[in-house]
Amino acid sequence: MKCIEVPKTYAEKTIRLLRRHGLLDTEHLITRRDDHVVIPLRNDEQVPDILVNIPLKIISCNPPIRRKIRLRVPSHDVIGDVVIVRENVLETMDRNELIHVLRTLYPKIRTIYLKRETTGEFRTAVLEAIWGIDNPVTMHKEYGLRFKVDLRRAYYNPRLAEEHRRIAEEVGDDEKIFDLFAGIGGFSIHIASLHRSIIYMNDLNPYAVRLGIENIIINRKRIRGLIIPLCMDSSLTPKYFKQGVFDRVIANNPHYSHLFEHVYRYLLKDNGILHLYFVSSIEERDSFIEKYFSDWRILQLRKVIDYAPYVFIWRADLVKT
Description:
This protein is an alpha/beta fold and 321 residues long. It has 3 domains: 2-60, Alpha-Beta Plaits; 77-135, GMP Synthetase, Chain A, domain 3, CATH 3.30.300.110; 157-319, Vaccinia Virus protein VP39 (Rossmann fold, 3-Layer(aba) Sandwich), CATH 3.40.50.150. It has 9 helices and 17 strands.
């Protein structure tokens, strides 16, 4: 069979491009040869066109076959070098089996946490370390951006990474945006990395705001827009801001977002866009919008992530009329 041999400094980029184009042979292992990496191929016909400017050799090879591991994998989240599983997993899986499965899947992790619940006005997690070092601070990547996370002191959901990017791609340059429940800065930093916009990054949790500021600094070389951090009760924003000056408001507070309709209306320009996140079943989704936002025009309704059996977090894109 055929392999590509590349200097190890080019290995990550090469693997990513091969995987994107379906040329990476995943049934065999990638191996090392001195300061080079040997990567198995499905075929080598498109390689010169795809791997432009990468110093490589196409060689004959016989890499070891990847051992297939059959594991019963529970629902979990990977955040940096930490894995979090919900407490109810232990209803169907022994704790030692759970640890074995996760360590087999992720040999480089340092901590496994059991999530007991989300509690308090800051939506922080109650975590029990069941393996590894009990340190909830970690670094997590989203689309090349790096986020410092404290899993006990500020809300963070890694499953929202695609949503952060999706909203950022909808924004245009020179927009004025209010991220009302910003947490550690996911939406704000993604937007600022793509656009020369002004984003007010607000959260009631002072520690989340502190992390948001650190994350601005961590990603400063990639940020094009201006982010203004705030720590205030969102219901008080009409006291401190002029009416109707924002092009877009992001309201990612799924359980309580409907309580701030008057705030969104005050902040937005006419025809401004509200990205509203809320929790609902499919059956109750439309009645939720009708009950709380009947005076707004609906652009789209989108299911974002699962929340519970038959219950989801939705995003409604609404226009102020």
